[in-house]
Design goal:
This protein is an alpha/beta fold. Helix content is 44%, strand content 21%. It is built from 12 helices and 11 strands. Strands 8-7-9-10-11 form a 5-stranded mixed sheet, sandwiched between helices. Helix 5 crosses helix 6 and helix 7 runs parallel beside helix 12.
Length: 316
């Protein structure tokens, strides 16, 4: 079945509005086990009629009013016994090339399985589609070889997974941020229900703030510098103690483009995780590039450390 989307509006063509509608429509249609073959955007006015006629000439289905009209009709058009599955795996901690190396050849060996990748913010979506049998075989391979790197299979972001996991346990999170300047807290509070699990967010950009609000010793800062394993540890433990939370994440690093050194180049970040009754863990990461990319990947790494602790997964 050929399905075509036609979106209209000058604001889409001018770039004033991002076409999130097309993404939503594509997801809704995929949930039915179908795929869009073409997507067209046209301006307002008479051109809409021409676009609809053109699309209708080559497609079985063309878009308005998805939920009330289109979806019910699509269901009636599916032949008896027809079935199609689609699975999404949100993967973090691995780049697309790593994922390809681990699973692509094995997945491509399955007849009639359609494989796709989509690089998202800080993670990669792996998509399997086709008849239920091939998709089930592919899912087994993905789970076996990507394992703990799979954040969700329902397209939830890692921060959504964390908020749910904390809420289920009745636990609270605190954050202590230097180089990310509140980005970690922002991602958490973007999730509905975050108020049940997130109470304190410390932005301690200056060394004085680290000392005053988190109790980081001045001699530690002098000896090791703000971007160091001991300071990340002290920040996490200080946030945990001050807030009374169950878990605390701390980040300190060099976002760049200036401020790096041979010992600590731009892109270096230390992430600390302290938990009540648990061992404090500090890991060093390296994310050179733009400041935005640095903040995104550093926060993703911090969230993954917490996710693994909450779910009892390997942290090292």
């Amino acid at each position: 079945m050929r399905i075509e989307l036609v979106n209209t509006g000058d604001e889409l063509l001018l770039g004033d509005t991002i076409n999130t509608n097309a993404a939503w429509l594509g997801q809704q249609i995929a949930a039915l086990g179908l795929m869009v073959s073409r997507h067209l955007v046209v301006s307002d006015g008479a051109v809409i009629k021409d676009a609809m006629a053109e699309a209708a000439s080559r497609s079985d289905v063309v878009k308005p009013m998805m939920e009330t009209l289109v979806e019910p009709r699509l269901r009636t058009l599916l032949p008896d016994g027809a079935s199609r599955s689609i699975r999404y795996f949100k993967v973090t901690g691995l780049g697309e090339s790593d994922i390809v190396e681990r699973v692509e050849k094995k997945l491509e060996a399955i007849p009639d399985l359609i494989l796709g990748y989509c690089i998202r913010q800080g993670d990669v979506d792996v998509r399997l589609s086709g008849q239920p049998g091939p998709v089930a075989l592919g899912e087994a391979i993905v789970r076996e070889h990507l394992g703990d790197h799979i954040v969700s299979t329902d397209r939830r972001l890692i921060e959504e997974v964390i908020v749910q996991a904390l809420a289920e346990r009745g636990q609270w999170l605190a954050t202590a941020e230097s180089c990310t300047g509140g980005f970690l807290s922002n991602r958490i509070t973007d999730v509905s229900g975050a108020s049940r699990v997130f109470g304190h967010g410390f932005i301690t950009y200056a060394n004085e703030a680290k000392q005053k609000h988190l109790g980081v010793p001045a001699d530690m800062l002098d000896q090791h510098g703000a971007v160091s394993e001991p300071v990340a540890r002290a920040m996490a433990e200080g946030a945990l103690a001050t807030s009374g939370a169950d878990h605390a994440l701390a980040l300190t690093g060099i976002a760049g483009p200036t401020g790096g050194s041979e010992e600590k180049p731009v892109g270096t970040v230390f992430v600390g995780l302290a938990s009540k009754g648990g061992e404090t863990l500090v890991k060093k990461f390296f994310y050179p590039g733009t400041r935005d990319r640095f903040k995104l990947l550093a926060s993703q790494a911090a969230f993954d450390m917490l996710r693994r602790r909450l779910l009892g997964l390997k942290l090292d």
